[in-house]
Amino acid sequence: MEAFLRRKNIIFSFKRYGVDCLGAMAQGLFCSLLIGTIIKTLGQQTGLAYLVTIGSYAAAAAGPAMAVSIGFALQAPPLVLFSLAAVGGAANELGGAGGPLAVLIIAILAAECGKAVSRETKIDILVTPFVTVFTGVALSAMLAPGIGAAASSLGRLIMWATDLQPFLMGMIVSVLVGIALTLPISSAAICAALSLTGLAGGAAVAGCCANMVGFAVMSFRENKWGGLISQGLGTSMLQMGNIVKNPRIWIPPIIASAVTGPAATCIFKLQMNGTPVSSGMGTCGLVGPIGVYTGWADNVAAGSKTAITAFDWIGLILISFVLPAVISLLVCNFLRRIDWIRENDLTLS
């Protein structure tokens, strides 16, 4: 069996599944859902309908893109790699709020099963795709709904937090949604499912921005401008592989979110009165801040808000960009000095 697994390049290792696959999946998510969201938001703000259409197509390919990326990380043969597109689509759809996590688990299992039978028969063109797709879709039907329910339980915890006083609510919601944004689950789906708006939505925006801007700024010395843009306007999920290797790199953004959440709810009264999904997007394509702005504009048009004030803008800029960058950088520099964060711990592959 050991010789067979070695011949099939099936390696049961934490690095391969917990680091390589997570990193690849984050790139697949960026190249589909996140870039699609950026393009769609650009189209909505400029009134260019064809950009909205393009963005919608890209976002719809998130499941297949993530699964194929995982297969690439596992060095899957072509027939396995291509078959994973169907697996990713099923896992992401059936996984709901836990779609990305479902894709990660199920695509790994389906890919390894496909690799095991690859080139073992004279009808490989039939056997390998059949085994990969059948295994992946069957596992999706069995496992993905449960994974989605587990992800939604995080959402219920967030709803519980919104019943607390604004200070604690702001801190808890900001930290939890920020963590969900970076984990391989869909913070946007959780916020949408819970209709997370108002002050709770503002706290969610704060937490997401803290993770994205925080990681982007504190890893600038390793990743330069490419990393700044891909994390600051894309996703902090790109750091998941590094977080698995050294969880301490997550401390600065989490501390930043614990500060900006209460600041958003108690000082600036920052509310998300746009679409709930925007609460869980952070600075991805600037969807979170734009959602707050569109909520202001709608309130002004409806007469419930007299005007968008300078204080509103100062709060939005501080919560979304300035405070996450400053706090994360300061905490990260301290952790570098005490050797909790070492050189290249934040390097994106």
Question: What are its keywords?
Answer:
single chain; mainly alpha; globular; 349 residues; 76% helix
Structure characterization notes:
With 349 residues, the chain is mostly helical. The chain folds into 2 domains: 149 residues, no CATH class; 174 residues, no CATH class. 76% of the residues lie in helices and 0% in strands. Helix 6 packs antiparallel against helix 7 and helix 10 runs antiparallel to helix 11. The two termini are 32 Å apart.
* Overall outline: globular
Count helical runs. 15
SSE string? HHHHHHHHHHHHHHH
Total tally of structural domains: 2
The largest sheet is: none
**Helix residue percentage:** over 70%
Count of DSSP E strands?
0
Computed structural class: mainly alpha
Mean pLDDT: 90
Low-confidence stretches: none
CA-to-CA gap between the ends?
Answer: 32 Å
Strand content range = under 5%
